[in-house]
Amino acid sequence: SPPARPVETRRAPAGPTPPLADTGTAPPDRAVPANTPPRPDRGDAHPATLVSGADTVSTTTGARVYAELVDALAGQFDYPGVARQRGWQGMVRLGVHVAPDGTLRQIAILHSSGYRVLDHAALLSLQKVAWLPAVANWQITQGFDMVVPVEYRLVDG
């Protein structure tokens, strides 16, 4: 799965970039994750990565959790107005512990975008999700950590 990519919604994307979740019409100050493959110059832009507890969670389950997480984040991303106005873009890597009951814990910025406002917006977006109810039904016996890359980029249109 590609990284979650909030894009400026006031401009039409330059090519097909369907959202991962049906978010309806977003107001001009909202951004949504887009299903766009990483650019070749972004070799470090990997999808969510299991960083601990990987032996207790299958790759398939990890991918399902990541898909649930991206879906839940779809309506939570804001592209801060000051960042849009100044043309600020960047990749934020968030770390999160997913508990067996689907609770998101220990949410932290692992790698900054270089812009505090983008880092803070990504962190708040993940904190708003707080819980993935579907995960509780998958009978995961031990929690695990994930890395969630979030790319903020403005799309020319």
Topology:
Elements: E1 6-8, E2 31-33, E3 49-52, H1 59-73, H2 81-86, E4 90-98, E5 104-111, H3 116-129, H4 133-136, E6 144-152
Antiparallel strand pairs: 1-2, 3-6, 4-5, 4-6
Task: Kindly list the characteristics that best describe this protein.
single chain; 157 residues; alpha+beta; Fusion Protein Consisting Of Minor Coat Protein, Glycine Rich Linker, Tola, And A His Tag, Chain: A, Domain 2; four-stranded antiparallel sheet; two-stranded antiparallel ribbon; 6 strands; 25% helix; elongated
Helix content: 10-25%
User: Which strand-content bin applies to the residues?
Assistant: 15-25%
Rg from Cα: 15 Å
Proper CATH architecture: 2-Layer Sandwich
**Largest beta-sheet details:** 4 strands, antiparallel
Shape label: elongated
Q: Which stretches are low in confidence, meaning pLDDT under 50 for 5 or more residues running?
A: 8-50
Strands, count: 6
N-to-C order of helices and strands: EEEHHEEHHE
Strand order of the largest sheet: 3-6-4-5
- Specify the structural class: alpha+beta
When the domains are counted, the total is 1
Mean pLDDT: 72
CATH C-level name = Alpha Beta
Helix segment tally: 4
What does this structure look like?
This protein has 157 residues and is α+β, with helices and mostly antiparallel strands. It has one domain (1-7, 47-157): Fusion Protein Consisting Of Minor Coat Protein, Glycine Rich Linker, Tola, And A His Tag, Chain: A, Domain 2, CATH 3.30.1150. It has helices at residues 59-73, 81-86, 116-129, 133-136, and strands at residues 6-8, 31-33, 49-52, 90-98, 104-111, 144-152. The protein has a 4-stranded antiparallel β-sheet with strand order 3-6-4-5, covered by helices on one side. Strand 4 (90-98) and strand 5 form a beta hairpin. The chain is elongated and about 45 Å long. The two termini are 25 Å apart.
